[in-house]
């Protein structure tokens, strides 16, 4: 972990990354890709120590309220957040100035800030996005080794539901010959139904591999799934998009289930929902009860 004084915190789309890098150790992580131009080891977390000051300045200068997003690139609730509490401080500012929040994580550490999330949701809107990829707990511990398992993330979704906070599940990525199975999809969908999630984001059954994350992924396959690296090489070579051979079957299960239980699964509709501040025309606050 190392500290920097950043020059800015919000992107043009009002997204922020307080940390750069991650210690969750997910074997498929696209953020490892060289195109993101990390100048340090991925596990050596770069901490924007002045993030709260930058965020307050940015929020105070905005002419109208909007949704602030975080977690798309690097998880805001990594292990270091327990000590640094920078995510929590930024949420306090979002709450204080009356902005909305769309936050993505795999960690149950988000429950530390439950009261803040509830307050943001009362004043504006708070949407929590939780990534679920692997129903089998043992496989999950291999694929996503340094973060709470899918069952615990489901429990977090339940707690958020009980507190009136809308949730969206990222069902991605799904790895060929590992978790691209009917049993896996149906298990995760049961969690989503029970937790009454607002929506499920799925970009297809498969993953993407670019220089940087491809090498890390293949090394992990070699360690944990003997023979699977060669199978990937033979099937996909150095392709960027790695589509499962079961994509059609599994996407049909996903769409059918979402339609049956009233879960939104349209990508554009979900991103529009996450970006829409309550004052904007056409926005309707979600009622869970």
Layout of secondary structure:
Blueprint: E1 2-4, E2 15-16, E3 19-20, E4 46-48, H1 51-61, E5 67-70, H2 80-84, H3 86-96, E6 100-105, H4 114-123, E7 126-131, H5 137-143, H6 150-162, E8 167-170, H7 182-194, E9 199-201, E10 206-208, H8 213-224, H9 228-236, E11 241-243, H10 247-261, H11 267-275
Write up this protein.
By secondary structure, the chain is α/β, with parallel strands linked by helices. Helices cover 40% and strands 13% of the residues. It is built from eleven helices and eleven strands. The protein has helices spanning 51-61, 80-84, 86-96, 114-123, 137-143, 150-162, 182-194, 213-224, 228-236, 247-261, 267-275; strands at 2-4, 15-16, 19-20, 46-48, 67-70, 100-105, 126-131, 167-170, 199-201, 206-208, 241-243. The strands form three sheets. The protein has a six-stranded parallel β-sheet, sandwiched between helices. A three-stranded mixed β-sheet has the order 1-4-3, with no helix packed on it. Strands 10-11 form a two-stranded antiparallel sheet. α1 packs parallel to α3 (86-96) and α6 (150-162) packs parallel to α7 (182-194). The termini are far apart. The model is unreliable at 281-289 (pLDDT under 50).
């Amino acid at each position: 972990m190392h500290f920097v004084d950043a020059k800015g915190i919000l992107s043009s789309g009002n997204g922020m990354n307080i940390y750069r890098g991650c210690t969750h150790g997910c074997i498929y992580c696209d953020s490892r890709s060289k195109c993101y131009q990390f100048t340090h080891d991925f596990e050596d977390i770069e901490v924007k120590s002045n993030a709260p000051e930058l965020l307050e300045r940015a929020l105070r200068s905005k002419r109208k309220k909007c949704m602030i997003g975080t977690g798309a690139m690097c998880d805001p609730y990594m292990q270091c957040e327990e000590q640094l509490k920078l995510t929590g401080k930024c949420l306090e500012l979002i709450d204080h100035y009356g902005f909305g929040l769309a936050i993505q994580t795999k960690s149950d550490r988000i429950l530390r800030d439950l009261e803040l999330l509830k307050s943001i949701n009362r004043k504006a809107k708070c949407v929590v996005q939780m990534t679920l990829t692997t129903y089998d707990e043992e496989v999950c511990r291999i694929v996503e080794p340094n973060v709470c398992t899918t069952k615990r993330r489901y429990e977090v979704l339940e707690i958020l539901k009980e507190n009136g906070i809308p949730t969206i599940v990222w069902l991605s990525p799904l790895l060929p010959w590992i978790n691209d199975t009917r049993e896996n999809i149906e298990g995760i969908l049961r969690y989503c139904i029970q937790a009454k999630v607002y929506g499920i984001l799925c970009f297809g059954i498969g993953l993407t591999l670019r220089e940087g994350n491809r090498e890390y992924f293949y090394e992990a396959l070699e360690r944990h799934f003997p023979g699977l690296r060669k199978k990937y090489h033979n099937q996909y070579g150095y392709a960027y998009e790695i589509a499962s051979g079961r994509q059609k079957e599994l996407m049909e299960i996903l769409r059918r289930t979402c339609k049956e239980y009233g879960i939104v699964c349209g990508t554009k509709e979900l991103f529009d929902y996450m970006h829409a501040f309550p004052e904007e025309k056409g926005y309707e606050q979600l009622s869970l009860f």
